[in-house]
Amino acid sequence: MVTSTMHPVLNPPTITPVIIDLRVSTKDFKKQNSQHSRPTSPESSSSSQDEFSTQSSLADTDSADSDSMNGSIETADSDFDNDESVPPVPGVDLQKMILSGLCPSDPTALKTIPTMVLYDDLGLQLYDEITYLEEYYLAQEEIEILERDGDKLVEHIPDNSVVVELGAGSLRKTALLLKALERKRKNIRYYALDLMLNELTKSLKSLGQFNNVKTAGLWGTYEQVLAFVSSFGPDVPKTLLWLGSSIGNLCREEAMDFIASYRKTLNVGDNWLIGIDRRNDPQAITLAYNDSKGVTSNFIMNGLDHINTILQQDFINRNNFRYFARYNVEVGRHEAYYQVKRAHELVYRDPSQKEIRIPLAKDEIINVEYSYKWSPQETTDLLAQTEFTRIGQWTCSSQRYDLHLVRKTPFFFNSTDPMPCPTQDEWRELHKSWDLVTMHMIQHPSMLLEKPIALRHPFLFYLGHIPVFLDTQLSRALNEKLTEPSYFNVIFERGIDPNVDDPTQCHTHSVVPDIWPEVDSITNFRDRVRARLFNVLNDPERYPMTRRLARVLFMTFEHEAMHLETLIYMLVQSPNTLPPSSLTVPWTMVGSSSSSSSSPSWVPPASWISVDPSTLDKSILSLGHNDSEVQDLLENKKYALDSEFGWDNENPLITCKSPPSAFKVQSRQVTNSEYLIYLEATAQLKDKNCIPVSWIMIQELVTPTTTTVEDIIGVKTVYGPVPLSISGEWPVSCSNIQATHYAAWLSKQAGQTLGLPTEHELSIVFKWKQMTVPKNGLENYGFRQWHPCLDQRNQSASTTTTTTTAATISDLSGPGGLWDWTCTPFTPLVDKKEFETSRLYPGYSSDFFDEKHMVVLGASWATHPRIAERRSFRNWYQANYPFVFAGFRLVQRGARKC
Description:
single chain; paralog of FGE (formylglycine-generating enzyme); 25 helices; 31% helix; elongated; EgtD_Methyltrsf_superfamily; oxidoreductase; methyltransferase; SAM-dependent_MTases_sf
């Protein structure tokens, strides 16, 4: 059972629903619609609806305008109740749907009655009564979430948005959201979509008055509102609401098709809030649809009376049926039926008096409603398959019901493909991300030669480096010429990573030209190299997928993904970066010339997870994996396509290394607020070497006279500085040396031996979680968020009040948000003499076995899932390198140190 009165049609017409503006009198509305053969579009509706026309700009709407309909609801005439002149539901032939469902083409098929028959005016009133019943937990728990988290939720809805609710119902729950939007003083244009005109107008009136939120109704169907939503331009942000687990009316395949159809209609940055009931205890679900007062039974049986109204004849007698319901555990759905009490015949007479006879057998069941339930994993898979990015999930206290906020993003990185060679779709999405960063966030031409990190090349270099690296590797593997201009290979093939303390010391790298090529020539070269790539992928006869070619494609894909992250942490350091277009943030930005006076935000203290490696599976204790490039020379195509790839430093699989002793690890990384306490306690706020470069200080903008907490504006992001009142609860991004000093200070304060984890310890923790805790789609990597917040699972689970409270591996935050520093120097997993250097990229790892680089594990918010989810992946940076998206968590080992 759901709040929606509509079942989707996945081939939408071009017509849009009728806009119901309560400022239009009932008489005028009926006159306007009495000869209505199809719904009006926003452009053709009454002039009094202009304020709600998709042709007008939201930015031009004055939320306090006296012409707002919220201030003139009382002027509307009486409702349409008992008025037979009200036009029928637009675009819906319920008569045909009823008769075709009762006369299936296959005589052995189950007879059905459309769910929409349940929602006449009386049905809606009965359904509203159901939502107040104790047994019907869905409504109560959705209300709990909205009352508790409504303010947080609406932060994700941009100002000047259009909000469209699919299947609005009584609007009791919606009112909670609208009030939250009103408290945030957001100018919102809200449309409630429903089929039943009488109840829609009543529900709209029940909302009361708002200053900033303006309301209107949409009388129509799901498929009609598709055209309505698409009529808004790309500059108008939109949020859809689909509450009450209305998705339950659809089977798994229908739900996927329906959500995918709406994704095509939405613009990048648009949101969708979806309520979903879980596969809960069967007894609880059964009681939810079989209440002790019999309200649900009356609701279902009233549908039979409505059928007679729709068909305009005494077609069906409800006394010949009973309500029959069951929960199908295997399928995961509640099923509602009409069960025939005695054998009889239904007779329908069409306008020509021709009869249609429908025989019914005793105890035969006729389906009227399915209510599908979704496990967390099914929901995660659904959103991944429809390429929606989940940016928020709010769960009721009983863990039975969720609200999911999903967004259409400019690109979508799915979880790791089971095949080691990236697919064409993966390449396309990676190219979208690269182009967003290089062609939009980097302003042309003013930023192209900018070097926000002095140790790196200017931005322009990376625009040429990525296609040159790909082109060079393809040419070597295929024994073909380089793409012209071939001299690009000389200046773009390899970047730099100089010694932080002495930048004159650097590995072999490409020649730095006196004058860089024009950006147009670089982008033209990029496009031709991409075309070359897809020619290779699309011509298996000319380019058979050998293991060597597959490795080249794997390596160049991950290389581009890693440099995407490098560019992002460079852009964070530039004051000139443009934020990603059409993606809003759930916070209020501060000006760069003023500091935040609010106190830093907090999360509960990190809990400690006990880890005893001796009790864990040997696969969790292993390091690396087997992937020798010698295998590339074998002509075994199956092996080439099925085996895992990795970089040279991940090979071989180490299973014989002694496991570490038992230890405890923090459930999350140290936050900005916690690091700030350390700097204050040690009087290091004046020491530039101790302050993370991820923070922005007033001294970067003006000449300081003193340095205090108030001098910290906040944390640098691609959106600009975010005050500590918001970012205080985020993990702190800092260097390995800064993290080590924090650990030493806290050890003294706590009287315990605390430190950074070893590579082996952290690898065990992350593998343990990956093998025991299912992904929930909220892990903060792959650009799910564009800032280093904790993943939401950890935020909701962090209810401990002391740092000594035990936790389980499911409470572990990450990987994601920020990479995790370790105290392990970057060296081969085996003795250096046994290390097998990559033949394709000899200097990738070996140039950095210098005891200055430390192993970094996990992922950041800007890490591609192919990297973030491969537990053998080893990252590394110089211990004193401060710019990388890396944080840290501590371990407690007793007396043993790193």
